[in-house]
Specification:
The complex is a heterodimer of chains A (about 575) and B (about 230). Chain A is of the alpha/beta class. Chain A has a domain of about 180 residues: Cholesterol Oxidase, domain 2, CATH 3.30.410. In chain A, the strands form 5 sheets. In chain A, strands 1, 2, 7, 8, 9, 10 and 18 form a 7-stranded mixed beta sheet that branches. In chain A, strands 13-14-11-17 form a 4-stranded antiparallel beta sheet, covered by helices on one side. Chain B is mainly α and about 230 residues long. Chain B has a domain of about 150 residues. In chain B, helix 3 crosses helix 8. Classes of the chains: A alpha/beta (about 575), B mainly alpha (about 230). At the A-B interface, helix 5, helix 8 and helix 9 of A face helix 1, helix 4, helix 6, helix 8 and helix 9 of B.
Amino acid sequence: MATPFYDVVVIGSGAGGGTAVHVLTAKGIQCALIEAGPMLDIDKEYLEHKWPYDFDHRGAEPGGKSYFGQGKPFGFFSTTSGGWQLDGEPYTVAPGSQFHWFRSRIIGGRTNHYGRMSFRFSDYDFKPYTRDGLGADWPIAYEDIAPYYDKAEDFIGVVGSKEGIRSAPDGKFHTPPPPKVHEQLIKKSCDKLGIPCIPNRRAVITRPLNGRPPCHFCGQCGRGCKTASNYASSQVQVFPAMKTGKLKVFDMAMAREIVTDKSGKCTGVIYIDKRTRKEVRINCRAVIVAASACESSRLLLNSKSSAFPNGLANGSGLVGRYLMDTVGFGISGSIPALEGMPHYDTDGAGGAHLYMPWWLWDNHNKLDFPRGYHIEIGGGYGLPGPGTFHGAARRYGYGAGMKKEIRKSYGTGVGFAGRGEMIPNEHSYCEIDPGVVDQWGIPVLRFHFKWTDYEWKQARHMEKTFTDIIEGMGGRVTGLSAAQRESDGISIPGTIIHEVGTARMGTNAKNSVLNGYCQAHEARNLFVMDGACFVSNPDKNPTLTINALAWRGCDYLAEEMRKGNV
Amino acid sequence: MFEIERREVIRALALGLTTIGTMDADAAQHVHTATGAEKSKGPYRVKAFQPHEYKTIQRLAEIIVPADEVSGSALDAGAPEFIDTLAAENPQLAGIFHGGLAWLDAEMRQRYGTVFTGADTKNQTAMLDILVAAEREESARRNEELVYRRSNDYRQFSNYTVKRPSPLGPGITFFDWVRKMTVDAFYTSPIGIKDIDFRGNKGMARYVVPKESIDWALSRSPFKSAAL
């Protein structure tokens, strides 16, 4: 049988790969999409609107797995398909380092369950080195990406409001939902402290968009939305692209190697069909790698040839380098003013309806850390699940007294999570572990990671700020955020699941792997369109920027193909 | 455009939403009652426990989350069935309960001369009160030990002041298991969800935050001024 041929092979179906197949198929370009997990079956995977009692295990999972720390990563109802460890696909962590790597294995990847925070980078985020001499500048500026933020927001749909705040550039927004009661108190407390508290920006739609009905306010975005009223690349990009007839999806396909010819041009992709364990080859004119930052770098490093003895497009030695996560720290509080309040449905549009963008971007000379963070809010009357009241039960013992206290304290808690920018450092990177392969015979990654004082000091600023906000609204701090992993005062690297970098953009083949179009300096028909291309990791969740960069890169790729350059 | 609207309506119907507002409350209630009625066809068959063990779990459920003026007990909410179902699927969990229940009966015999189910309510709650007190003491002791282990005293292996672990350790561990699973079963049941007055998990056309709730919180907060 002849080796199949497609114009473009896209590896990975999340935010980057989803955007790529949407943009390219719309231009009539024939694409193949390779995904290491199965096709997404919405009816099976999405547990939207189910009650815990619809299941005999109530959400604790068969045999009570969640009680033994063996349940799904964000609870039974979250539509995760993958996790911190995958059977037969290990990774290793170097001695002295900590790193947790979350991988999805399904069409849509992590966009099926992600938080959907959709923040544009600010103008200054693209030139961090110029501002403070740390890290490196991006080869592109805000003006280059702004039209693609517009396109991405127009297409996926984002709620928000125009505020004119420099750290949080305005976009093209759907009407945001009104703030919940605890959020109104938080806003008033923030007003006193001079912290802007504005409508949240999330990839949820509140008016019809391309056949997708508006949000119905069940608050269960993390379970996957059957009406596609939020953004997931599976429903919003991959499925529609399949209907164009220009896209062929290969699921359960684990990319092993990108094949190059003697001149260094990519000619195809070899993957392992997980169902048969057979090796399959697809030929193509161009390859787009969008397997998630570290997985993409792993594939490049494993694609060695005479033209690329250090791994594909790795003449600089920078593939795997400058791995970044977001700095995370959280605190929870209890607010007496919420006790006894007439209850209401706090589900809303999923996630918080307000958030706080960084407010001290002009004051870094007065702070002991160089970069900013934004604040995410939690609170309200959540649907109880296994574990919701374990803390309260321990606090109050048992019996009628405990029952009364749980009733009284339910919904009176608030939580704050800081999400801050890390400075890329030379101690944080991934490389091929020379001694370990996965069950497909593919060498695995070994991680190295260190936070520096820049991040630790930022986390201490978060701690003070959150305490001030809680006390300012008459509340008291009840503890660190529920996430035990933050108990040491800063999140364990990787656990915010914003891992980016490892194949960064730059102006030349010495200081970077890619150019500003996500195109490899050393292989002109190779593109990396996920978080790997990030030069810095600003305090803005990365997905929207991945969408915009992939869109921009695909416009460029299509034009280069038309001109015959690729 | 018409096509979009039509599809929207179909999707909304598929979700059980009406186009004008929330899912009809009576219809929802009907669904729940139907499920409940279906489930209560015939008595529950215990899979993981001996009859005596199961009776003990039932009694514990009744005491841990008792019925009061607002709602029924964890027994009414199906906590014993929940524990039995999961234990039948997981030998490790079943082991925790088999051992813990036997420990409880032995302790009860020693203290009150009868197994747990044979004791009167006063002695049953007295036993649980002892376990809760021991749990708190033990938790404080563990924190102390944690601090001690991080200190220089520990490194020099001197000045050991931390108390010995509680002799009631197995009971503390077991009670935490039976309590957390009982509490989970209660608050994930229709009875428990109603008890705490959870109002969500439904679709609606427009999201509104009620003024009475806003006023309630604001008037009790340091911010007396009007809502946003």
